[in-house]
TrEMBL record:
Residues 218-275 form the Conserved virulence factor B-like winged helix domain. This is GntR family transcriptional regulator. Residues 4-63 form the Conserved virulence factor B first S1 domain. It comes from the Bacteria. Pfam families: S1_2 (PF13509), WHD_CvfB (PF17783). Belongs to the CvfB family.
Length: 276
């Protein structure tokens, strides 16, 4: 069965003047308009398409790629407000609606919001919600300390940034441990730093101690290689410059340089680092 609001690989059953009709199981035959048909398309070809309900209330297929699909979290911009709610640009001709009753706080035109895309199964309409808590796991997390996880950056707080962990739980990144630019909706790798007694989760963008050095070593080597085998960064470089270029603290940078020296992978010159 094909799913509305998601990518599907479907077989072509007919090619007409209007476009190609695709077999979509219980949804019947779904039209892929002419402008999206690949060259030399023929019956029995398999095409990967996105299925949605267009402005004429038809279930239709497209090869255009929206910024997100049903059951995903994504950061989208509000481009219009009206009596129905807020409309978000999600990369398709028909904008994505966030009804008023699905807005965590009243949305404003021109601003970006982290939302969850969902399918209203009674109407087959795709919509979005900024009431994210109801889509996250209510059960306590079972992560172990320093587990590697996927983070989607959420809202800014007085302490740092909230982030969604593996699409399941909220966690917190503290300002004094962030050494790279973050924005709502950005996806980054992170680590479980601590799970408190109340169930709240502290996060880190890098592991501690030796683990942090090992994680950063490949990035530093790649940085040097990309600059023709030489980097002008050294122990006298400012913490701000190191953070801006490499996204880590000067402490981590110096520890990693020492580690790579021991492994005979770099040499230190007066004006920087050279790859061996």
């Amino acid at each position: 069965m094909a799913d509305i609001g998601k990518y599907n690989t479907l077989s072509v059953v007919a090619v007409t003047e209007k476009g190609a009709y695709l077999s979509a199981g219980e949804l019947g035959e779904v039209l892929l308009p002419n402008r999206f048909i690949p060259e030399n398309c023929k019956v029995d070809d398999k095409l990967t398409v996105f299925i949605y309900v267009d402005s004429a209330e038809r279930i239709i297929a497209t090869t255009e790629k929206p910024f997100g699909q049903v059951d995903e979290f994504v950061s989208l911009k509000v481009i219009q407000l009206n009596k129905m709610g807020a409309f978000l640009d999600w990369g398709l001709p028909k904008d994505l609606l966030v009804p008023f009753n699905q807005q965590h706080t009243p949305m404003e035109e021109g601003k970006y919001y982290l939302v969850r895309i969902f399918l209203d199964t009674t109407t087959d309409r795709i919509a979005a919600s900024s009431k994210l808590d109801k889509y996250l796991d209510i059960w306590p997390a079972s992560y172990q300390k320093w587990d590697k996880v996927k983070l989607m950056i959420g809202g800014k707080t007085d302490l740092g940034f909230k982030a969604i962990i593996n699409d399941k739980h909220w966690g917190l990144l503290f300002d004094n441990e962030i050494f790279q630019p973050l924005r709502v909706g950005k996806v980054v790798d992170g680590f479980i730093k601590n799970i408190r007694e109340d169930g709240r989760i502290d996060l880190s963008l890098s592991r501690s101690g030796e683990g942090k050095v090992n994680d950063f070593a490949d990035k530093l080597l790649a940085h040097i290689a990309e600059n023709d085998g030489f980097s002008p960064l050294h122990d006298k470089s400012s913490p701000e410059l190191i953070q801006r270029i490499l996204g880590v603290s000067k402490k981590t940078f110096k520890a990693t340089v020492g580690n790579l020296l021991k492994k005979d992978k770099i040499t230190i010159e007066k004006s920087g680092l050279r790859l061996k």
